Amino acid sequence: MKRVVAIIRPFKLDEVKDALAEVPIGGMTVTEVKGFGRTGGKKEVYRGSAYVVDFVPKVQIDIIVPASQVESVIDAILKSAKTGRIGDGKIFVYPVEDVIRIRTGERGEEAI
User: Fold this and answer.
1) How are beta strands 29-35 and 2-8 bridged, if at all?
2) Structural domain of 93
3) Whole-angstrom Cα distance, residue 63 to residue 26?
4) Rounded Cα–Cα distance for residues 35 and 10 (Å)
5) Residue 24: DSSP 8-state
6) DSSP secondary structure string, 56-85?
7) pLDDT at 64 over 80
8) Among residues 8, 18, 32, 67, which is most buried (max CB within 10 A)?
9) Regarding beta strands 29-35 and 56-65, do their DSSP bridges make them parallel or antiparallel, or are they unpaired?
10) What whole-number distance in Å separates Cα of residue 28 and Cα of residue 47?
11) How many CA atoms lie within 13 A of 58 on its CB side?
12) Residues sharing a CB contact under 8 Å with residue 1, sequence separation 6 or more, in sequence order
């Protein structure tokens, strides 16, 4: 099993969710996050004064899938989240040792 974490632009969430539904996945967790990458934030102008926004709002999507689905999930996210501009986000893939469904006690892929 793998954990796929995608950090994307907030307005792309619905497109990504629809693309992942076609994979299909069993579920996802979505969290509003803030951060910055290589650009170090962005410059904005407010009432004539320029200032730097250090942390840019993003959305983090967490998905646990069988290893056989990882490439399909990555492809769906890449195609639906891409704008071609700086700040489109990142995808991280982590190994998952075990999953336990609290309600039933199921473990492993059956619990996803």
Assistant:
1) unpaired
2) 2-111
3) 8
4) 13
5) T
6) EEEEEEEEEE-GGGHHHHHHHHHHHH--SS
7) yes
8) 8
9) antiparallel
10) 40
11) 21
12) 64, 65, 66, 67, 95, 96, 99, 108, 109, 112
Q: What is the CATH number of the domain that holds 15?
A: 3.30.70.120
Higher pLDDT, 49 or 28: 28
How many domains, the chain? Answer: 1
Tell me whether residue 55 is exposed, middle or buried, using C-beta atoms within 10 angstroms of its C-beta: 0 to 12, 13 to 18, 19 or more: exposed
Which two tokens mark 88?
């489109």
Q: Which of 24-28, 54-58, 99-103 has the weakest average pLDDT?
A: 54-58
What CA–CA distance (Å, rounded) separates 7 from 14? 14
Bridge partners, 51 (sequence order): 44
At residue 36 the predicted structure's pLDDT band, cuts being 50, 70 and 90, is confident
Dihedral of the CA atoms 76, 92, 17, 112 (nearest 10)? 100
* Residues 75-101, mean pLDDT to the nearest whole number: 95
Structure tokens at 57: 């709002």
